[in-house]
Each structure stands twice: as structure tokens, then as C-alpha cells.
Design a protein that fits this description.
Layout: E1 39-53, E2 56-63, E3 67-73, E4 76-81, E5 85-87, E6 96-98, E7 101-112, E8 115-125, E9 134-145, E10 148-159, E11 164-178, E12 181-192, E13 195-209, E14 212-221, E15 229-238
Antiparallel strand pairs: 1-2, 1-3, 1-15, 2-5, 3-4, 4-7, 5-6, 7-8, 8-9, 9-10, 10-11, 11-12, 12-13, 13-14, 14-15
Organism: Rubrivirga marina
Pfam families: Phenol_MetA_deg (PF13557)
InterPro entries: FApF
């Protein structure tokens, strides 16, 4: 249920309208929408390693994990998650397929005691199966504490194919590491058909220009229902 989409690190010397705020590489979405009339594209590739038991394991990859964000008004954006391609186990040619198309929107809701509050609503539309459309809702909070940023979210998704409701949450701490370099540490937890998945996650961003950022991230699963290890690389660009 977790997606590599996240809170990013602001460029403090820039005005708020010029800051590049991305929804990757951590799982926690930012509480900030793309500025009006700007388009932001965020994409990457990721991998995961899963212990299948009896000394066996699976290595999966996916990409390009492309998210297109369009600023429609102050504090409001439209979101289009393009289908990618996922190989659940590279040793099995039949264990692969396209990921879902996602349509949604993000809206800033309020500012409460220095915390920015926002929400995302989204529907996932399968492109290579007869599975049903699944709705998703996320409530996000975020704030800056000097050079440090904090973020958290709670999400709920109804999988109409299995008629299950899955819930999850994250918390992230962002810190500056050097000029134009940010790092984060994050914990994430959620329900799955196999039980509770708990993840420890970290990574870094490199701002190459006010409108271009690279990222790298990785982490470990802390419960049996989570992947044993995961990670990825990505970029974000704003037009």
C-alpha cells in the first residue's frame, strides 16, 4: 500500500512560490500543492527483495513510477499517475505486468498551530486486468522547525476487487545535509492481506536547479508482511 511518493526539502532562500516541493522519494506526501499554472513531473525506478522462504527469494523491479502534477489554483493540484511496468520476480517471465493508472487531486485544507494540513483523493484504475477501480484518501500534515521539516500522513484505500479496506500511516523527519542536499528518515506502517507491514526508510535529495531534483532512497522491512529490502532512484522536474 505504500508508494514512493513524499515530503521534499525546501530551498529556504527562495520565495514559497519558487520552492520545488516533491512527493518523492519518501512515502509521506507533501502538504504543498504545485504552484498555479506549473506542471511537475516526478519519476523513478525502484526494486524490492522478498524472502520467499526455504532459502529462496524474489527480486522485483518497477518503473517509471511517473506522477504528473498540475497546479490549477492556489493550494490545489490535479494528479495523474501514469501506468508503469512491474516485474514482481525477475526470475519468472510470467510474474510481471502494468501498474494501475491513478487519477486524483490534492488540496490544502488549513494551517493549524504551524502545521499545514492537506488531503489527497485518488482512484486507481487497472489497465491490464479486470480488477475494479479502487478509491484512496490521504490526510497529510507538515511543518518546518527551523532547518528541520516534519511530516506525517494517514491513508485509507478500499480494494474493491478483494472487498478489503487497508489503512496505513507514515512519519518523516527531513534534515539538510549540505547546500542543496537534503536527507530524511521515515517509518511507515500499514495493513496488507498478509498482515501488518512496517518499514524503516531513508534517502537523500540533490537539487540541481530550482526546477530539477535527483533522489535516492532505500529501506528495510521490519515485519514478515513487508519486503526485506527496497530502494530506488528518481528525478523531479518542474515546467
Amino acid at each position: 500500500m505504500f508508494r514512493p511518493l513524499v515530503l521534499s526539502f525546501l530551498v529556504g532562500a527562495l520565495p514559497a512560490s519558487a520552492q520545488l516541493v516533491t512527493d518523492r522519494p519518501d512515502f509521506t506526501e507533501s502538504a504543498v500543492a504545485v504552484p498555479t499554472a506549473r506542471v511537475q513531473v516526478e519519476a523513478g525506478a525502484s526494486f524490492e527483495v522478498v524472502d520467499t522462504g526455504a532459502g529462496g527469494g524474489a527480486f522485483g523491479v518497477s518503473g517509471p513510477e511517473a506522477l504528473v502534477r498540475l497546479g490549477l489554483a492556489d493550494g490545489f493540484e490535479a494528479r495523474l499517475g501514469l501506468p508503469g511496468y512491474r516485474i514482481a520476480d525477475v526470475t519468472r517471465p510470467d510474474d510481471r505486468g502494468f501498474t494501475d493508472l491513478a487519477l486524483g487531486a490534492k488540496a490544502g485544507l488549513a494551517r493549524f498551530a504551524e502545521w499545514d494540513v492537506a488531503a489527497i483523493v485518488e482512484v486507481s484504475i487497472p489497465v491490464d486486468s479486470d480488477a475494479s477501480v479502487s478509491p484512496l484518501a490521504i490526510l497529510i500534515v507538515g511543518r518546518d522547525l527551523g532547518a528541520v521539516s516534519l511530516g506525517a500522513q494517514a491513508e485509507v484505500v478500499w480494494d474493491r476487487t478483494t472487498d478489503r479496506t487497508e489503512v496505513g500511516g507514515t512519519a518523516v523527519l527531513g534534515v539538510p545535509l549540505a547546500e542543496h542536499v537534503g536527507g530524511f528518515a521515515e517509518v511507515a506502517a500499514g495493513t496488507t492481506p498478509d498482515g501488518a507491514a512496517v518499514l524503516a526508510h531513508t534517502g537523500a535529495t540533490l537539487l540541481l536547479s530550482p526546477d530539477l531534483q535527483l533522489d535516492a532512497h532505500g529501506g528495510l522491512g521490519l515485519t514478515a508482511a513487508a519486503p526485506d529490502a527496497f530502494g530506488g532512484l528518481g528525478l523531479s522536474v518542474r515546467f
